[in-house]
Fold Hexosyltransferase.
Amino acid sequence: MSNHGDILLVHSAKSPSLPLTDVYRNLPDKLLSFYQWTAENVAFDYIGKTDDDSFVLLENILQVLDDTTSKKSWFGNFRLDAPVARWGKWAELDYTASAYPAFACGGGYVLSHDLVRWLTSNIDYLHVYQGEDVSMGIWLSAILPKLIQNRLWLCDGTCDPSLLVSTQLNSSSIKRMWKNKENCQNPCWCGPT
């Protein structure tokens, strides 16, 4: 934070005296730590989370949020009734149901302030599951948030001129999309040169 004020290094939400190793299985704990720090240090109505392989058009997200109620709102592109993986990278052995509750796809999501406050006030009771997306779905299912579905929160590396977020991109794709956005206001393509 000292150079640019834009990177936050967090400790474990579950064990604050311990450093948090940056590995996939620690992402839910890392996310809770970030929300805890933010709730204690920043005034906000909404907070967004995206993956580092995502291209984000913040102005489009803000425009959609202007039309959104702020109470118990969870904004994103949701997977519904996804089967719980029992093997592989995303194997979940602690969650015993056969399907997950709704969760936002990997590109990210936006939460209203009250949902973040609920999460941070219940950190000691929240079990950390295998991934942050499914953990968030499991945690928030307890309070039935308002799911605000938007398919322009793209989950599969595709592009749409009106996108909010596109994910699963490499750095070259993200740079190209940004250049296109600057040159012709269309992150997907500027046409023949």
